[in-house]
Amino acid sequence: MDERSEKMNAEVIAVYPNKVKISVDQLDDFKIADEELKVGSYLRIADNENAILIAIIENFSIEVNEDGNRKYIIEANPLGLLREGEFQRGGDSIAIPPKKVEPAITKEITAIYENSVEQKTKFKFCKLSSNIKIKVPVNGNKFFNKHIAVVGSTGSGKSHATAKILQNAVVSKKDGFEELNNAHIVIFDIHSEYKTAFPNENFIGIDNLVLPYWLLNSEELEEVLLDTGDRDNYNQSSVFRSLVTENKKKYNKGVSKIYYDSPLFFDIDEILNALTNMKNETKNYKSPEKYMIVDDSYNLKDGKTEIGSGIYLDRGQRIERYFKEPLEFHPPKGQNVSKGDYADGTLDKFTTRFESKIRQDRLKFLFGEKSKNITFEDTVKKFIGYNDADESNVSIIDLSGVPFEVLSITVALISRILFEYGYFYKRLRTRKNNDETINNDTPLLLVYEEAHKYAPKSDLAKYRASKIAIERIAK
Questions:
Q1: 86: phi then psi, degrees, rounded to nearest 5
Q2: For residue range 164-214, what is the model confidence (pLDDT) as tens digits?
Q3: CA distances from 469 to 4, 353, 357, 411, 412 (A)
Q4: pTM of the model
Q5: Residues 6+ positions from 12 with CB-CB distance below 8 Å
Q6: Strand 202-204 to 394-398 pairing
């Protein structure tokens, strides 16, 4: 039996390229039993060619004529045509004038969505808000191949919706959904919300997070370690850049061209040793190329300490010696020992601040001993779930324990590591095999929870690192 009422009293009074205007005499007679008519409800508009135009109600209005009789005016947006149960987008071929207007039934609405996506690419995670019996699938490959934003006011359910989408993606993959292939999801979880949603997945918190500080770029290193408000900032930056570059050369002999920004290992503790020695150094007053390091070049004579003439060190020898350990220098004395190049205190505050930063327990994940020893390969494996013990489709990076002053830099570094891995992995595959057709067999989905907290629309320096990294990925 037809679900529609026999009392149809609606007619199309205007057809526009993007809108259909409908006049209804009695709204109660126009409704379908047990269904509410509202903005967002679906209408079926029949034409003379046995095709049905499906439109969605955009707004209502009421017109009152001179006799006081009311007419309801409905404006609806056309979605597409139903022909023999198959939905086709667009409504340009609708005949004029259309015959009849009625509310669409569930079967017709379902046909819009169920047949719109091929079975092998169908990904389901939501239902129609106006009729929760109807599931709305999307093309999973296209959906995850674009940048997606989940927006809404506080408490509207953004995190819940995100978790639901990701849970369904993981379940779909485990159920043999071929379009997801070897995809991996990395969630930047700022409020520690996602562990309960993915209890068995790869969880990275502040206790097991290890980031190689030597992969920080120049701006990020200086943002963490230099005080931008210091009057000696320029001199500090110049010395720091020089030391880092030299230390990278020391540990990467096989690399021909090494610069300050080169993503190569350097020893942060050796940089501290060199800074300490540079601020404390003294020189031979008459021979400034000799440095007055306390060693075996002095002895006791007539009960008094006789200071040697110092140790000759050219620039390379000096830096190499300064890297090894903190040294003791003879204090400035008479005409024999003079102050060093940085006796004016240029490096005093910087060295103290530098040491306090790299020795802080809360920054151990970035400057600790493990950060020295971890390789780029092990870092990537950790983030994309290729652990020795277990492999995972989802990695949750819990940022709730990361100090706020390095939050932006932490997000930037992880994002850049994953981007560089994906970029160069694809290039290497193609170089190895010129006939390579797979664009990327290990695609990554990065999920930035509450991104406005660490990459807002702001020009402040503290957000620059994460904004640049995320914008690069988006572009």
A1: -110, 130
A2: 999 888 876 655 555 555 678 999 999 999 999 998 889 999 999 999 999
A3: 56, 27, 24, 8, 5
A4: 0.80
A5: 20, 21, 22, 45, 97, 98, 101
A6: parallel
